[in-house]
Structure formats: structure tokens, C-alpha cells
Design brief:
Length: 121
């Protein structure tokens, strides 16, 4: 019977040794997995950054296009306003010469209105 008792402890020692080896292998696997996860997260972060840069580039192009269109529209509006003023300047002069008091009262009313608006602060 004494022989059986010796066999049992050596079997436990062998199992503990194997368990230690398995645990060390598991630790190495976990370290490798953590490195793989870190690399995958880094790749995802880089992809997200590229995507954000693409969106920013598209937004910048759209803003530049909108600014160009607004500039064109402003120039067109300015040209239309100048053309209207040139076309109607002579008829306005005729009206002022024919009715100077009315023109003076209208100009004074507009001036008073604008003065009231700007001084209202």
C-alpha cells in the first residue's frame, strides 16, 4: 500500500506541472490576443480617421462651391441693381424736378425712419 500512496503524489505533481505549463501557455496566448486586439483597434482607428478626413474634404469642396455660387449670384445682383438704377435714374430726376417738395418730404421721412431704427439701440 505504501507504493500506491507514492504514485498518487507523483501523479498530482505531474498534473500540477502540466497545469502550470498550460497556464503559462494561456498567459502567452492572452498577451498575443491583446496585441492582436490592439492592432485591430489601431487599424479601425486609422480607418475612422481616413473616413473623417474624406468627409471633411467633401464638406470643404461643397463649401467652396457654395461660396463660388454665392459670389456669382452677388455679382449678378449687383449688375442687375446697377442696370436698374441707370435705367430709372433719369425718370427719378424728372420726378424730383417736377415735384421737389414731395421728393424732399419722402427723403426726410426715409431718413427719419432709418435714423429711428439705427438709434434705437
Amino acid at each position: 500500500m505504501a507504493a500506491k500512496k507514492k504514485a498518487v503524489p507523483s501523479n498530482i505533481d505531474a498534473r500540477l506541472t502540466q497545469l502550470r505549463r498550460d497556464f503559462e501557455a494561456l498567459q502567452e496566448d492572452v498577451k498575443g490576443l491583446a496585441g492582436d486586439v490592439g492592432m485591430a483597434a489601431s487599424e479601425r482607428a486609422q480607418m475612422a480617421m481616413r473616413s473623417a478626413e474624406d468627409v471633411a474634404d467633401r464638406a470643404m469642396r461643397l463649401a467652396e462651391e457654395a461660396a463660388r455660387e454665392a459670389k456669382i449670384a452677388a455679382v449678378d445682383f449687383k449688375d442687375d441693381a446697377e442696370e436698374w438704377a441707370e435705367e430709372n435714374a433719369e425718370s427719378l430726376r424728372v420726378q424730383v424736378r417736377e415735384q421737389p417738395i414731395t421728393a424732399l418730404l419722402i427723403a426726410g421721412g426715409v431718413g427719419a425712419f432709418l435714423g429711428a431704427i439705427f438709434l434705437r439701440r
